[in-house]
Amino acid sequence: MLIALLPGDGIGPEVIAEAVRVLAAAGARDLVFETAEVGGAAYKASGHPLPQATLDVARRADAILFGAVGDPDCDRLERHLRPEQAILGLRKELGLFANLRPAKLFPELADASALRPEIARAIDLVIIRELTGDVYFGQPRGLRKTDKGLREGFDTMRYDESEIARIAKVGFETAMARSGRLCSVDKANVLETSQLWRDVVMEVSADYPEVELSHMYVDNAAMQLVRAPGQFDVIVTGNLFGDILSDQASMCVGSIGMLPSASLDSSAKGLYEPIHGSAPDIAGQGKANPLATILSAAMMLRYSLGQADVADRIEAAVSRALETGHRTADLGGNASTTAMCDAVIAALG
Ligand SMILES: NC(=O)c1ccc[n+]([C@@H]2O[C@H](COP(=O)([O-])OP(=O)(O)OC[C@H]3O[C@@H](n4cnc5c(N)ncnc54)[C@H](O)[C@@H]3O)[C@@H](O)[C@H]2O)c1
Ligand SMILES: CC(C)[C@H](C(=O)O)[C@@H](O)C(=O)O
Ligand SMILES: [Mg+2]
Predict the structure, then answer these.
(1) Where does the Isopropylmalate dehydrogenase-like domain lie (predicted)?
(2) Does 280 appear as a known binding residue?
(3) Count of Cβ atoms closer than 10 Å to residue 336 Cβ
(4) ipTM above 0.90, yes or no
(5) Which of 56, 73, 111, 219 is catalytic?
């Protein structure tokens, strides 16, 4: 099976290298890797953040393991040349509309959570974020001058009912496979897109009478995630709200360096990446927590490669490595990126 490795920028290459080591040590079967440049690294090498050759490898591959993109050197470039366009382009071009972001507290990390340990212990949820629509991709957008000569920026938040229905189905199916509870998060008290979102989610719910559906406004959801996260099992939400809530959820389980993700199309094809970015502030220092990427690799084995047994072994090894006290700085420890990965490999047994 062909895996496209897209390390990207900043800490991306550091954490991808560790995930590849873990895949080998865990006995993942029949993997062939092909590495390609993406993001700021690709821009600097070839003038485009998502070169055609990279897109071609991503299309040919059975799964994609992605590090992170984002480079301060590129912040002043025109938007279409910025590194972040690469991940947005991959999601859109490959039709990866369903983004699964599980947040589960490893019991050993109760003290690393931003929440009180007794609250943090209850966290085992998944955020299902719509990934190819919303204000991220809506047209028109741009910068212009108003009649008064003022600079004005504008974006368009939009969803059509088919986009909402297909992500809602992923939410309901996921809820069926878990506790049977689904919370749809929107801003239907203000936004037309959210009113449609709520209507369509309710329509789809008719096909899932076993699922207990609730609705919550996103501002309240942000508050409830901190107040009583144990009430959530599956959250389904739009692209922008899901982006923000998942970074928040990561601190509830200890660190942004802990949250993996799967971005799926309607088949088994997927892109797997940590939810964090290129972290330029710690890049090149051996400080990055590799666990989000290692756990993303485990998701890849489970969802795209049919190797759930190996995925289970990796997740158990992460748990054991944490139990034995190994932690990177974001979790309050002093293990380097490589030492953290060594601990996971040792725990594979
Ligand atoms: N999918 C992606 O590629 C992706 C995701 C988010 C942000 N970005 C990009 O990354 C760049 C930096 O963005 P940002 O600073 O807002 O977010 P970030 O996630 O890169 O970093 C936020 C903070 O978390 C820390 N952090 C992140 N990952 C960590 C890890 N694995 N271990 C330890 N600490 C970690 C960083 O050091 C930083 O202090 C920007 O260019 C942004 O657009 C890319
Ligand atoms: C880099 C950026 C475009 C991206 C997003 O907003 O989707 C990131 O924050 C993420 O969460 O994957
Ligand atoms: Mg984000």
Answers:
(1) 2-344
(2) yes
(3) 17
(4) yes
(5) 219
